[in-house]
Design a protein that fits this description.
The chain has 361 residues and is mostly helical. The chain is built from 13 helices and no strands.
């Protein structure tokens, strides 16, 4: 469909926020690796600037869309196909907020950067809890009525991102009940998101297994990029389990903190191994799809955030284990992510400039 570029922002859909997610996660991942690779500081800074600019533009465009086209915006919110992407809005706020709390301090000052980071964390967490509840209610109400798809994870993953980024939030809170409560709350968010994600991933796996004889054709062709979303859950959950365990050392008693540290190591080992298998599998499927002519869509942003999340998870796990090999994996993932991001970003900009918008899916 050809429409003028200026109309793109007047009719924006929530999945556009995946661009802010995919950009912000590069900054977050680079910042998490700075102690090991000092040269990545410039990467963290550049992508923080880009992520903030993209988020500001999208928030303004989204607000304009709701103001000028309220009926259409409400229709998107009620749509089973479009509502899940409201999770991208929450995760964009959380990701850019996390980057602001680290890299943003260099430019905004400690106080201002932390204030913005905490504000975005609260807003992103509140919105993410909203999308989580609505999606779980819809799944319970419509169980078995629709084909399970990987993008169903989008509205239930934000609490996991809140848990991962919440580890840093606790360090900026005063000692005492508030800091302890937020840490416990983050573990609750971790459990909520993981439980829902497992349910959806199992449903998706069963759906594809039932059609395994069809091979790659068992997956709707334009939905293939969404197969990367479960990797985002894997990376974020490994990061959350280990970052929260590290944060607990300054909040909880030594015995409890040690138990959480052990849990983070065990979880990272088991889920990380599954992540390697999943990464190889989805990479193979994606390469096959690209060779068959997979056309560009906003869904391509699904290639970015999950890889960045895996880099963050590997970084946290590498620090927790003291493993140079795991940290090297995190660096490798980040190095691979940058050209992927550049490809998706350039295709997105090209589509906007040409007036031919990428498909919503």
């Amino acid at each position: 469909m050809n429409i003028a570029p200026q109309s793109a922002f007047a009719h924006i859909t929530p999945n556009w926020f995946a661009a802010a997610m995919g950009t912000g996660i590069v900054s977050v991942a680079a910042a998490s690796l700075e102690p090991e690779v000092a040269a990545l500081k410039i990467v963290a800074e550049v992508f923080w600037f880009l992520a903030v600019a993209i988020l500001v533009a999208l928030v303004g465009a989204f607000a304009a869309h709701w103001t000028s086209h309220r009926d259409q915006a409400l229709a998107y919110m009620r749509s089973p196909a479009m509502f899940p992407f409201y999770g991208a809005v929450a995760m964009a706020l959380l990701t850019v907020g996390s980057a602001t709390g680290t890299t943003g301090q260099i430019f905004l000052g400690h106080g201002v950067a932390i204030a913005f980071s905490l504000t975005l964390w609260v807003l992103g967490t509140a919105l993410g809890l909203g999308t989580y509840v609505v999606m779980m209610v819809r799944l319970a109400r419509d169980a078995g009525m629709a084909t399970a798809m990987p993008f169903w994870l989008m509205p239930v993953v934000p609490p996991m991102v809140s848990a991962t980024t919440g580890a840093a939030v606790t360090s900026h809170l005063p000692e005492g009940a508030l800091r302890t409560s937020v840490l416990v709350f983050c573990y609750v968010l971790f459990a909520m998101a993981l439980t829902a994600a497992i349910v959806i991933i199992v449903a998706v796996a069963r759906q594809f297994a039932d059609n395994r004889a069809r091979g790659i054709d068992a997956i709707p062709f334009n939905a293939i990029p969404s197969l990367w979303i479960p990797l985002g859950v894997i990376g974020q959950s490994i990061g959350a389990s280990n970052l929260l365990a590290a944060a607990s050392q300054n909040v909880l008693d030594a015995h409890t903190a040690a138990a959480l540290h052990t849990f983070g190591l065990a979880y990272g080992t088991v889920v990380g191994a599954l992540g390697v298998v999943a990464f190889i599998t989805v990479t193979t499927i994606t390469v096959q799809a690209l060779r068959r002519g997979l056309s560009f869509s906003l869904g391509w942003w699904s290639f970015t955030f999950p890889i960045g999340a895996c880099a963050v998870g590997a970084s946290a796990f590498g620090v927790a284990t003291g493993s140079p090999l795991v940290l090297a994996v995190a660096v490798t993932l980040l190095v691979a992510l940058i050209p992927i991001w550049a490809t998706v970003a350039s295709r997105t900009v090209g589509s906007i400039r040409s007036g031919v918008l990428p498909a919503a899916a």
